[in-house]
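DM between two lab members

TW: hey, do you still have the 3,4-dioxygenase subunit beta entry open?
JB: yeah, one sec
JB: this one, 322 aa:
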Amino acid sequence: MAGPRGERGGSVTAKQDVTPTYEGRPYARPDEELVDQGLQFDIGTLLSRRGVLVAGAGAAALGLAACTNGGGSATGSETTSAAAGDLTEIPQETAGPYPGDGSNGPDVLAESGVVRSDIRSSFGGSTTTAEGVRMGIELTLYDMANDNARFEGAAVYLWHCDRGGGYSMYSEGVENENYLRGVQVADADGVVAFTSVFPACYAGRWPHIHFEVYPDVDAITDSANAIATSQIALPQDVCEAVYAEEGYEQSVENLAQVSLETDGIFSDDGGESQLATVTGDVAGGYAISLAVGVDTGTEAAAGGVSGGGGPGGTPPGGGSSG
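TW: and the structure you got?
JB:
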């Protein structure tokens, strides 16, 4: 991104006819503000400041985990190593009808500001913040075509529904929002980290989080470049604890009517390789983690809905969703 979220200005020379610059780089759109320079300008800035951004994302994840009962990082080296030892390729799943990646209508990946770790608020034309129980998300990416090496430099686009079950950019009432969507780039340990809120359970689907993996940050400008598309399943006991909180009332009933074994996405194996490890509590927030094996040697086409759950659930204000 072109600078810390909300940062404006830049180095502008005294003469009005001279193109303004930011960190020595000329504005792509001289008549617009820094935050409106476009995704390609953001990517250039991201690459030049990548070490700082990655360190900031890691610090945010550690800060959230410190608030939980465990007090450690979201995964911890022992958990990550154990997961890598039993590593399997992450199942290819449907992105659903609300990806926001340009493959079905709106394209948040073309917007300046999408590369961010805290995805709770909308950016650009809105600053609305999604409410709910705080949740840190940490994914560790492994390059299975390269002896399970940590997948440094891979980019992850992650999104999920809000506390009411709606998807920003699509669902009724939040069409003009883009919260709970964002991109992060894997650090030297293959880790990406996001700060979000716990998603709802809407009718017909087990609580889940969507994500796409791209080979690098330049590739996110086209959804066809994704090398993996999958979903994260959330543990039942954690969901039950969260859904007892105010604002999640409808999720209680919806969760009682579905299981990992009947869900249209996770039913083939009960979400075995997609079920997140979770620490924390409602008061301090949760930290979820998952090891993600990506095999660039296999076809990257997203899988369809499988199992006995039908064609997906129905989020409020929207149609069928995977």
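TW: got it. Helices lie at 39-48, 50-66, 77-85, 236-242, 249-255. The longest helix spans residues 50-66.
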